[in-house]
Amino acid sequence: MRRQWTTGDCWLWCEGTALPVLWLGPVLWEGGHAPLYACQRCIRRLESKVRGVLIRGASTSPAPERQQWAQGDCWLWCQRIALPTLLLGTAESAGHQVPLYSCEPCIQRLEDKVHAALPYVPA
After folding, report:
1. Is residue 55 part of a domain?
2. In angstroms, what is the C-alpha Rg of the chain?
3. Per-residue pLDDT reduced to its tens digit, 88-116
4. Which of 40-49, 79-88, 108-117 has the lowest mean pLDDT?
5. Residue 84: inside a domain
6. Residue 54 domain-assigned?
7. What is the DSSP string of 62-115?
8. Minimum mean pLDDT among 41-45, 64-68, 106-110: which range?
9. Is the pLDDT higher at 87 or at 11?
10. How far apart are CA 45 and CA 105, in angstroms?
11. Range of the domain at 84
12. Which of these, 123, 54, 57, 121, lies nearest to 94 by C-alpha position?
């Protein structure tokens, strides 16, 4: 499958706007979903993180329950290490999956992006 680049906003580290981005998949959140796009620089950074986890011998087994906070490194904007993180999903590279964790402030930031991308539904 050939991936199509489009002009849009990067949802990962750089948060760039109006640049070439690639659709990585849907972000599922509380029953809704929004498209996750990233620029080439941020995709390379994500790939590097995935490779690093795989090199350290990460298990390809399913990750722990999402609602369980654990000490870890935030993979999103702040990139802080050794703080409480929550499993958001998995990242895949070369057929291997690794868990994707984030801290509370970065999760809130992602939630804000998802809510902004979802269609407005009046109560």
Report:
1. yes
2. 15
3. 877 776 677 777 888 889 888 887 887 77
4. 108-117
5. yes
6. yes
7. PPPPTT--EEE---SSS---SEEEEEEEEEEETTEEEEEEE-HHHHHHHHHHHH
8. 64-68
9. 11
10. 20
11. 5-117
12. 54
Token readout for 65 is 């329950």
**φ, ψ for residue 24 (rounded to 5)?**
-100, -20
- SS3 at position 117: helix
Number of domains present in the structure of the chain: 1
Residue 74 CA, chain-centre distance (Å), reads 10
Q: In which element (H, E) is residue 24 found?
A: strand 19-29
Whole-angstrom CA distances from 67 to 19, 25, 37, 62 are: 34, 21, 25, 14
Measure the CA–CA gap between 58 and 50, rounded to whole angstroms. Answer: 9
Question: What is the distance between the alpha carbons of residues 4 and 89, in angstroms, rounded to a whole number?
Answer: 23
- Nearest-angstrom CA–CA distance, 53 and 67: 21
